[in-house]
Amino acid sequence: MEWSAEGFLLPVVDVEACVGCGLCVARCPALQPSSAGGEVAFESVVAYGAWNRDPEILRNSSSGGLFYALAEWVIREGGCVFGVVWQDRMTAGFVKAETLEEVRPMCGSKYIMAAPHLVYRDVRAELRRGRRVLFAGTSCQVHALRRYLQRDDEKLLTVDIICHGVPSRRLWEKYVLEMESRKGAPVRHVEFRNKDESWERFRLKVFFGDGTQESCVHWDSLFIKFFKSDVALNRCCYACRYTRLPRQGDLTVGDFWEAGQSHPDWPLRDGITALLVNSAAGQAAVRAVSGQMEFRRVDFREIYDGQDMLHDKEPRQPYPYRARLFSEMDRWQLEQLYRRFVGTTLVGPFVLRHDGLIWRVLCRFRWLLGLILGCAGRRKNG
Ligand SMILES: Cc1cc2nc3c(=O)[nH]c(=O)nc-3n(C[C@H](O)[C@H](O)[C@H](O)COP(=O)(O)OP(=O)(O)OC[C@H]3O[C@@H](n4cnc5c(N)ncnc54)[C@H](O)[C@@H]3O)c2cc1C
Q1: Which in 23, 89, 130, 210 has the greatest CB count within 10 A?
Q2: Ligand 1 centre and the CA of 254: distance in Å?
Q3: If you take atom 6 of ligand 1, which residue's CA is the nearest one?
Q4: What Å distances lie between residue 331 and 61, 176, 336, 340, CA to CA?
């Protein structure tokens, strides 16, 4: 796997070393989609709102801290855990944890593509030794693991996260480098989902090498604005096959954003995990960690309605100016890139900003806007 110019890991065949066995094609998760299919009745989905009883663990996790509770159980049983950590300030990747100290850096979402390295091979090696293994990653990574292993193993517990898509590492590098040059100090550590204020108003917090810190409301960060605008996701994320049911993991975890509406009595300040239990192994794991976790059974619709990324939908169109965004990335500062390519519409050679006067005037006269866009043959975005 090699980093592409856009900042995503892509497979590259070393033709010198290839013996033409065809195994890479046979096992490829992208070429061989999941065999799990069929309609799943909403009434049959086992769903919970869940949160960890330990406030410190809850605060270090992105939502309700279920992942840590599962890891604790697996390690207690003599097993090991595979999850994603920061490997340096630019790179997130999968590693193995044998102890709870090694599990802690896995907690919390890293909003860039995680490098798998040799994780699938390492999981197989641990299963062959007869150990219990917990693997947590995106649905496509869980599917990739299953295709690699080619068989079910009762010692393997998989957790897939509800995923909006992974943004470009190149974009992240640019964000970090611009922060460092503005600050004059290296970035030491980043928390994408800091809960100092609360889970619902989480912040992106950056720790610098000179001992200082900076934070802003997550959604106000320029990097997250790019992420949420879907402008620089991995190409396959626009047509993700894994959003729908049935899910890939034994368990599915995400944020239970709607919890406050129907359950105002839950401890919403520190985070609630939206949990789907997809298999008997998943149900057994839930039972095993019920001492550490609070589980409240809910109607799946409560989660579904607030989770766009669970809907089985048409592929999203890749962002119309995606190619230009990447080709002009080195030319502009991020702020300028954002103003140029996000929340804008190109009409011929002109860039119309959606927060600009011309655009707002045009919006008041929608028929005129339609006429101009129709003539220019351009698509609206943002
Ligand atoms: C790129 C990305 C997009 C997401 N999009 C959504 C969304 O649209 N809706 C939603 O409800 N939730 C989304 N989440 C999941 C959410 O942020 C929480 O991770 C999830 O709710 C689990 O929370 P937790 O408290 O149980 O555990 P946490 O402690 O937060 O879980 C951490 C686990 O997530 C895994 N992980 C962290 N970063 C990555 C990564 N880059 N790639 C693969 N695995 C990773 C780690 O292996 C670890 O096991 C997303 C997460 C990521 C990483």
Answers
A1: 89
A2: 7
A3: 163
A4: 37, 16, 10, 12
Residue 242 CA to ligand 1 center (angstroms) comes to: 15
> Tens of pLDDT along the chain (382 residues)?
999 999 999 999 999 999 999 999 999 988 887 666 677 889 999 999 999 999 999 999 999 999 999 999 999 999 999 999 999 999 999 999 999 999 999 999 999 999 999 999 999 999 999 999 999 999 999 999 999 999 999 999 999 999 999 999 999 999 999 999 999 999 999 999 999 999 989 999 999 999 999 999 988 899 999 998 888 999 999 989 898 889 999 999 999 999 999 999 999 999 999 999 999 999 999 999 999 999 999 999 999 998 989 987 677 777 778 888 999 999 999 998 988 888 766 676 677 776 678 877 877 776 776 776 665 544 333 2
Of 355, 303, 346, the C-alpha closest to 322 is 346
Let me know: does 65 contact 52? Beta carbons within 8 Å: yes
Total residue count of the chain as it appears in this document: 382
Residue closest by Cα to atom 5 of ligand 1: 163
Ligand 1 atom showing the smallest separation from residue 255 Cα: 11
User: How many angstroms separate the alpha carbon of residue 112 from the centre of ligand 1?
Assistant: 11
C-alpha atoms less than 13 angstroms from C-alpha of 342 in its C-beta half-sphere: 18
Q: Which residues line the pocket of ligand 1, CB cutoff 6 A?
A: 61-68, 83-84, 92, 106-112, 114, 136-138, 161-164, 166, 253-255, 273, 307, 309
Task: Give the pairing type, strands 350-353 and 187-194.
Answer: unpaired
Residue among 161, 195, 305 to mutate when testing ligand 1 (max atoms within 8 A of CB)? 161
Q: How far is CA 192 from CA 32, 69, 161, in A?
A: 33, 21, 16
